[in-house]
Write a structure and sequence with these properties.
By secondary structure, this protein is α+β, with helices and mostly antiparallel strands. The protein has one domain: Beta Polymerase, domain 2 (2-Layer Sandwich). The protein is built from five helices and four strands; from the N terminus they run αββαββααα. Strands 1-2-4-3 form a four-stranded mixed beta sheet. Strand 3 and strand 4 form a beta hairpin. Helix 1 packs across helix 2. The longest helix is centred in the middle third of the chain and has 17 residues. 24% of the residues are buried.
């Protein structure tokens, strides 16, 4: 018997991802809205794990949780070393880092820059 696929809203998927990360004690979870800012995704979630092992565990648990909810995610990138794991969940991109790696790449700061509409209002 085929499993029925549920159609979930982006906000529902965001909640599932955040619940999984919170349950696994992810550090500094940051959700960034990319709607009207990028064509790669609608949202980006950035979080840290305390070690490579923690990052790998959070990644595996997240993938299992998504699968259990009937949500397909692409094969994660970086799971072998687990310094930085990327999980692509269609309209949501999840980056899981060790703290040192997150600090080095500073994705939070890059994507949280004000969008052009906000810059125009400031002028």
């Amino acid at each position: 018997m085929k499993k029925k696929t549920k159609i979930l809203k982006s906000t529902d998927v965001l909640n599932i991802i955040n619940e999984s990360l919170e349950k696994d004690k992810a550090l500094e979870i940051n959700t960034i809205d990319l709607i009207n800012r990028s064509s790669i995704a609608d949202h980006m979630i950035i979080a840290s794990g305390s070690s490579s092992r923690h990052v790998a565990s959070m990644s595996n648990n997240l993938i299992k949780k998504l699968k259990d909810c009937g949500i397909k995610a692409k094969k994660p990138e970086g799971l072998i070393n687990s310094d930085w794991v990327l999980v692509d969940v269609n309209d949501i991109i999840v980056h899981l880092f060790r703290p040192e790696v997150r600090e080095f790449y500073k994705l939070d700061k890059m994507w949280e820059m004000p969008n052009s509409n906000k810059l125009n209002k400031l002028k």
